[in-house]
Amino acid sequence: MIRPVFLTAALTGAFCAVFAVVVEVVTDLFGLWQLVLASFLSGALGSLFAQTVIRAWRKADADPSGETDT
Prior knowledge:
The protein is mainly alpha-helical. Helix content is 80%, strand content 0%. It contains 2 helices and no strands. The protein has helices spanning 2-26, 32-62. It starts with a helix and ends in an 8-residue tail after the last helix.
């Protein structure tokens, strides 16, 4: 139970780190509310990314043929 939670958190953190670099590059163009929106998007998209990766891994583990397209 704990392992998937930490894995999801690590994937979300990695996604947010990359997203933060992108935001840093264009930060001078953003106002406060745009920066808040970008931060929200970073967290939400990072969470969706991590959940999608975990779901694909679980499907691959459950399917002995290794195919995830069912």
